[in-house]
Specification:
By secondary structure, the protein is an alpha+beta fold. It contains eleven helices and six strands. The protein has a four-stranded antiparallel sheet, with no helix packed on it. The longest helix has 68 residues, at 148-215. Belongs to the outer membrane factor (OMF) (TC 1.B.17) family. It is a lipid-anchor.
């Protein structure tokens, strides 16, 4: 691409020097999106548009076991601990950057052994050796006429702000993951228990069929059919055991423990209750609630300030210094007025020729600002997509759960009727075992559908930004984070 032409900046620099302005763009918060909706609201859900996520939203699931797991994860998660530490480092760096706006005072002292060469002064004789004792202080101050230091402080403050929001985002993801893994553990446990009962019924039925085949009352095809049902149902168990184990291991790690160090208490989906109102913030509210969007905005702010820093580097810098020192060749004379020396100085450094480096650095900062602006917009769009996907998933989950409810109700009714018929001698043991098997398989399918439903409900809380403000306020009170 064609490079921009370089123009003299002397007149502009003189004007800014008189006013002490900070060069570069003043950051403006991006406008709220004009989008007013996501996708269709899930039918049958208790969704309240314009509602924000409440404090400790997982406690609304009415499950002490789930609440205990999420709370313990927040207290012990190592990734969140690392994020807090990095946040403190970013905040300290911002404080260190702010120090450059104040006068810099230094104290120094020393003892030096010196030899005077008398020949240099046209004298003959032995060159004497003496010790020079000195102690003094210097003070320096940059007038920051063009605001380069102020823009740098602004950039570092924005970076610390971004780190705070990313720490909050880590908290939101942690609470969501802990809740989802708890729901997954409960759903897999329920499904495994039901599938295990179905396999038990299959095995009992196979044994009965084998006895019938030996007695000649049942055919070989009945045996192979019973064996096929058993094999088919047994094939479900390894996957379910895997889901239970991986969810349990994931929960242990989320709490900062090795998997072998933690054993969960039994949890069932029946222990959970749907909260009264599911939050659904408007798009204009979402950009002020999700910490990942606010972190992207802080990155944009830092990039804007960096343009000002690069611009200020193209203008002169004025430095004021003053010093006062006591120096003497004898400790006896050290504190006499004749040993006092000092001075005041002002220095001006103006860039004249840097091979185009300063101009290129400014263009690079502008390009980074444009990239940050695009990344901010992309973060907003991704957030809207996530909310839309969750709303769509909740709609489909609702349909799937309705079908699972119907299938479970039908299987339960069939099981009850078969049980009654068996008790009255109108059905044999194999028919009863088949009904028992179908009911347990329906229970397993229902647990899977309900687990997906609960996981997407948790996903909606996360997509709305979680409750990070309450957590951040508590962390500030405890001097922990952010």
């Amino acid at each position: 691409m064609r490079r921009r032409s370089r123009h003299p900046v002397l007149i502009t620099g003189l004007c800014l020097a008189l006013t002490g302005c900070a060069v570069g763009p003043d950051f403006r918060q991006p406008n709220s999106p004009k989008v007013s909706a996501y996708t269709a609201t899930p039918a049958g859900d208790v969704v309240k548009p314009g509602t924000a996520v409440g404090d400790g939203w997982w406690h609304g699931f009415a499950s002490p076991a789930l609440s205990a797991i999420v709370d313990r994860a927040v207290a012990g998660n190592l990734s969140l601990t690392a994020a807090k530490a990095r946040l403190r480092g970013a905040q300290e760096m911002a404080d260190a950057s702010a120090g450059r706006l104040w006068p810099q005072v230094d104290v120094e002292g020393g003892i030096a052994r010196k030899r005077v060469n008398l020949v240099t002064f046209g004298m003959q004789g032995h060159s004497p050796v003496f010790y020079l004792y000195s102690v003094g202080a210097t003070i320096s101050y940059s007038l920051d006429l063009f605001g380069g230091d102020r823009r740098q402080v602004e950039a570092d403050d924005a970076k610390a702000e971004a780190a705070a929001y990313r720490t909050a985002a880590a908290y939101v993801m942690l609470t969501g993951n802990a809740a989802v893994q708890t729901v997954s553990f409960a759903a897999a446990s329920d499904a495994l228990a039901a599938a295990t009962l179905a396999v038990t019924a299959d095995r009992e039925a196979l044994a009965a069929v084998l006895r019938g085949a030996e007695a000649g009352t049942l055919s070989r095809s009945a045996v192979t059919a019973a064996q096929a049902r058993l094999a088919q149902d047994e094939a479900l168990l390894p996957g379910l055991r895997q889901r239970v184990g991986t969810a349990q291991n994931a929960l242990a790690v989320l709490m900062g423990l090795a998997p072998a160090e933690w054993q969960p208490t039994p949890i069932s989906l029946a222990d959970l209750a749907l909260p009264g109102d599911l939050p659904l913030s408007l798009p204009s509210q979402l950009v002020r609630q999700r910490p990942d969007i606010m972190a992207a905005e802080a990155d944009l702010h830092a990039a804007s300030a960096a343009v000002g820093v690069a611009t200020a580097n193209m203008f002169p810098r004025l430095q004021l210094t003053a010093g006062l020192e006591q120096a003497a060749a004898s400790t006896a004379l050290f504190w006499s007025s004749d040993s006092t020396q000092g001075g005041v100085a002002a220095g001006l450094v103006a860039p004249l020729f840097h091979g185009g480096a300063l101009n290129a650095a400014r263009h690079a900062a502008q390009a980074e600002f444009e990239a940050s602006a695009a990344e901010y917009r992309q973060t907003v769009l991704t957030a809207f997509q996530q909310v839309g996907d969750i709303l769509l998933a909740l709609t489909n989950d609702g349909d799937a759960l309705v079908n699972a409810d119907r299938a479970l109700a039908a299987a339960a009714e069939q099981r009850a009727m078969t049980q009654a018929a068996f008790e009255h001698g109108a059905a044999n043991r194999l028919t009863l075992l088949a009904a028992e098997r179908d009911w347990n398989l329906a229970r397993a399918d229902h647990a899977a559908a309900l687990g997906r439903r609960w996981a997407d409900v948790v996903g909606l809380y996360v997509a709305m930004g979680g409750d990070w403000r309450h957590w951040a306020a508590q962390a500030d009170e405890g001097n922990a984070a952010p």
